[in-house]
Amino acid sequence: MKTQSTRSIILGAAFLMATSAIGPGFLTQTTVFTDKLLASFGFVILISIIIDIGAQTNIWRILAVSEKKAQDIANEVLPGLGYFLAALIVMGGLAFNIGNIAGAGLGTNVLFGVSPELGALLSGIVAICIFLVREAGKVMDRFAQVMGFVMIALMVYVMFTAQPPYGEAVVKSFVPDTIDLLAIVTLVGGTVGGYITFAGGHRLLDAGIKGKSALPQVTKSSVSAIGIASIMRIFLFLAALGIVSQGLALNPDNPAASVFQHAAGNVGYKIFGVIMWAAAVTSVVGAAYTSVSFIRTFSSFIDKNAKWFIVGFIAVSTIIFVSIGQPVKILVLVGSVNGLILPVALGVMLVAAHKVKIVGDYKHPVWMTIFGIIIVIAMAIMGGYTLFNGIPQLFE
């Protein structure tokens, strides 16, 4: 394989994962929690980045050395566990995708004034077309990269326009006034929870980037993916902080749009439309591709017709949204629920990392195993706490 082609695939996998994470829920969650926690939300972002890197690097390395998809690894750890994990991932992916389609509809509504339902329908068709072309993998990689760069560039402009208190944000990132466990679980869930962390890992496997020799490339790609998503998160946080620090109110029906509108007027509002649409459609692509990758190894029929299952996944998500819609609170909720899937998925991978029949003579670094175990325990405890305490508050 040519070096240039390999580089493109590695970067594409990083952007696929990052843009899968940067969806309507990502934009909504970041804005809602910034409005609530102000500069102290920087601490939540810092902790979530550390957890994200630890979880994702562990998972991608284990996928690479085993040369197997996550569901097959889980079935080897415990028969039937792979089917359970796949069910969790697909259900979470479908729920997220309904929100992604909703976000695409909202983006087109802002840009062109069409109804969110019509915009969602047209955006669903765009996403489907990506998988109908001959070299769908390459098109998907390139689409994710271009949209990722567009989102970050526009976000930088809005951040500087909002004039956030940078010094306060830095200080409170290390010495917060409050620590919000629901926010941490939601951010981790929205970045590496559910299907998202497997998006790039499975893409690398499908492209043939696997085995012990590929570990440096896989590790670099996994950290780059978290870096891309985190840069976007930090810029959005600073933009939102700049607005709320000025005492300006955010519209609860569309808090992220308020940030852009307050920061840059009508131009900012249109920029929000572009970012929301790009974030939504790339997430639709990532969710559909990854969710189907979790079931294609269970059946030769699904594997041969994976493209059509992906198309069907997008079509079902679009039809459900056009029928019932998706409110802001559900976008926050889904991130929290996906955070609950992470301890299961990462726990399974860590067990697999020490089974010779799965990874051969590969020795998983002890520090990574310890780091991973700490994340599993911490996310399980925080996830359990928010399930019984934090999440019900969203609906009071």
TrEMBL record:
It is found in: Membrane. GO terms for cellular component: plasma membrane. The chain crosses the membrane at residues 37-55, 76-98, 110-131, 143-162, 182-205, 226-249, 269-294, 306-324, 330-353, 365-388. Pfam families: Nramp (PF01566). GO terms for molecular function: cadmium ion transmembrane transporter activity; manganese ion transmembrane transporter activity. One of its GO terms (biological process) is iron ion transmembrane transport. InterPro entries: NRAMP_fam. Keywords: Membrane, Transmembrane, Transmembrane helix. It is a multi-pass membrane protein. This is Divalent metal cation transporter. It comes from Cytobacillus horneckiae.
